[in-house]
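step=predict obj=Aminomethyltransferase n=769
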Amino acid sequence: MNRRLAIERESGATSQRYRIPGQGGIRLSFLPGERITVSSQDGHQCCELLALDGNGLVHAAIDPPGARLACLAVAQLHRAGEASQALRKRFDEWRIDPALMTGGVQLPGEALPWTLTLPADADPLILVLLAPGEDMTVDGQCPATELDVEHWRHASAGTGLPPPLASCRAEIRIPHSSARVYEVRAGEWIQVIDVAGKQCSDFIAFDKAALAHGEELTLDSTATRTLAGTALPQPGLYSRVTDIHQQPMLELVQDTVGRHDSFLLACTPKYYEDSGYFGHISCTENFNRELAPFGIRSRSGWPALNLFFNTQVEPCGSLTQDEPWSRPGDYVLLRATRDLLCASSACPDDIDPANGWCPTDIHIRLYGAEQHFPRAIASRVTPEELPRMTQQTAFHDRTSALTKRFIEYRGYWVPEAFEGWGARAEYLACRERVAVMDLSPLRKFEVVGPDAESLLQYALTRNVRRLAVGEIVYSAACHETGGMLDDGTLFRMSEQGFRWICGAPYNGIWLRELAAQRGARVSIRESSAQLHNLAIQGPRSRELLETLIWNAESQPSVAGLRWFHFMIGRLGGPEGIPLMVSRTGYTGELGFEVWCHPKHAEAVWDAIWEAGKPYGLAPLGFAALDMLRIEAGLIFADHEFCPQINPFEAGIGFTVPLKTKEEDFMGRNALASQSPEGRHKLVGLRLSGAEVPTHGDLVYQGRFPVGVVTSATQSPLLGCPIALCRLAPQFTAPGTRLEVGRLDGHQKRLAAEVAILPFHDPERLRVRS
């Protein structure tokens, strides 16, 4: 039995964890003898608490030390706007009068974490926990941020399952080492939940109409893999699962794990017999027994979707397995595309790591076809946190009206390309006219306090002390080894306030750890949910924005805004929507970024879209952006840099002023100890022919590799494939002839020549124009 289950069974309690988003809240039933802990991720977000007795009246006995009267939630409820509407809607769902919040208490951020145990002789309570706050202005630096809640409950107090996604049509419990059969209609939703964690569940389905005619038409692995373009089982799930006629039977809609197997056999009697366990029950036998009443013939092994089963294919082709990644409450959400007869198991395997050595239950929830759930997959910033499902940006309604081609990037859905344009047309619009792109997935962190400057001076490679208010600097952030954690832009908002805009959500945790180590008096709060942004890029971007952005006399105009500076303005006039406009971009063209609160996003998009028509404005997707940034020699995380690559090797050595920055910074000693002559360098490659190499292809001089391709594209500008390449210093001279290896690196070579970066506008005159 795994240790977690043993502890819970011995204590008679289970732990459930919740995340409260900034400006959001949760409602919990709190029983005598139970314990709750509330903590702030950044140490500065307050919690407002309302306790109600069985009659729905305010329970005033809970009065934590340092508590104040609740005020922020009351203010949020009375304001106009989406955050207020969303919170009022939650109170309606809870059937609680929002006016009762005047009797609540506030726990300031410095009072958290806070733990409350309800005495065994107390009456049950209803707790409302909120992470309240005002909408952050574009020049403000005090966002409402997340709270974490851990609730230790009596094991008998509930199912231990996550809350339903919506009203359920049916719930089916599958006890460990068994299987169940159930029917779903076309358009209905199937949620398969791992109750205790690390429990595999095999899934099979049959076309009901075909069964009525005596045909067992089921999920087909060969057809599904062929359409998906994969030859072997992968540690994930296919977005669509088809029958042998290549017609979809199921769609994957949500997945909180991301680590599964697809279409190996459900465990069989032969597997256990070959392992010496004769007579051991198997999923195949459980399926055969449950399906027999439906006239379905028994099989010696059932091809199945192996949910939560952690296998991987080794380079040699063999399969290995380990304990599942799934945790209590993790789930997969599927949608039926036709009427189906489904069977799910709770796998009985207890002889290897497949179920963490301890088989447990699986739970099925069925939802009606009238429900709607967005597509989402889970990510985690740290291994121990709750999953974060893919989000839509505030501009999603506008971009999704122009395209259905979205990809996941840093926890958000972003357009890959737009119908009616396509990557090449979008690229040309940016190079020749003007284009607009949603870059809201960028992470924003507000770093404020008397030690903000000294902390960032240590955390980042650039000389932060030289940064003036209103100015921006591009910098690397390095580990002690000199390897890059991230790159980003730092905005100086005030003398003691900065905004770090980067790619990785882990930056906030890393900065807070540094601050704690150094005893810095500083707050580091993520404002990504309060600040979304559009990139307006291209030679006519300034003309376009000049017609839209109003500025006060104390602020520079769009026309006068210098490269890597920002201004605070308004859309259309002095009473318009507040905006921050920065002269920054990721295309190598003259360009700007426009930052606004999400509640204003659609109005900002509409104004830019309408005003841009005379300028030939086009939308810009990530496929076109990749072409633009490679031509401009701009780097991308996990391609040109990673924690094993330093800024010099990534091509941004100019961000590391070893000679002019006297103070210490993270990674300085490691970077200073490396010989410049021995470092690999980022260079460009121009290739002959039409074939575009891929990330990771080795670059050869003769028989042996001397570098690696980090990014590549077909360049419309040069009319040939180009690549960014990290190369041994002996071969970096412009004009050096090399080859990119394909297949095994020897049987196929692509001729290449070293080129100066950037390919586009080598003097960077256009971006500075």
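step=describe
The CA atoms of residues 312 and 318 lie 8 Å apart.
step=end
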